[in-house]
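DM from R.C. (forwarded with permission)

"hey, sorry to bug you on a friday — could you get me a structure for this? deadline for the figure draft is monday and I only need the backbone to look sensible"
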Amino acid sequence: MKKMSLFFSALAVIFMISCEGPAGPPGPPGFDGFDGLDGLDGVNILGTVFEIEGSFNQANEYTLFYEFPTTVEVFESDVVLVYILWDQAEDGNGDPVDIWRLLPQTRLLDQGILQYNFDHTFFDVSVFLESDFDLGTLQTGDTDNQVFRIAVLPAAYGTTGKLDTSNIDAVMRALNVSENEVQRVILN
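My reply, with the result:
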């Protein structure tokens, strides 16, 4: 009998809890708050692309140095890629088409082996030349007015393995960055 009364009591409690009555009247409106001060611009945690142009020479030790702007924060898990403007071709309409190559890139020259390479920290990127010969013997076509694109990819893009990082157009599409949004800097 105790089990039966316990069952009916539990059923009655469930029935009473599940019932709702009519909604009560709304409460009084609250007071308006004070306007706050404008905040500082936030940090870009999305991927971005920069373009730098500079010349390699003995004075800069054949290194181009670029410091990320303060509006871009690079995390340890982010992927930083650097591309060199290798050549230009023409499309069917006669318009120029840029040909980009992912660094490092190696050239076999009469003097020996030349490599365009890079390294980076959370704050900057260095693009530099390495060779097995005196870099002072290079032609100006290998050193002057070289153009590089630096892509900072959040870890989600760099770790999936589905993105073709050798293709700068695919990287820019994944980051939703158009050609006119690329920040360009000429280095001295």
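R.C.: lifesaver. The beta strands are 48-54, 63-67, 79-90, 96-102, 105-108, 113-120, 124-131, 146-153, 183-186.
me: no worries. Residues 2-18 form the longest helix (17 residues).
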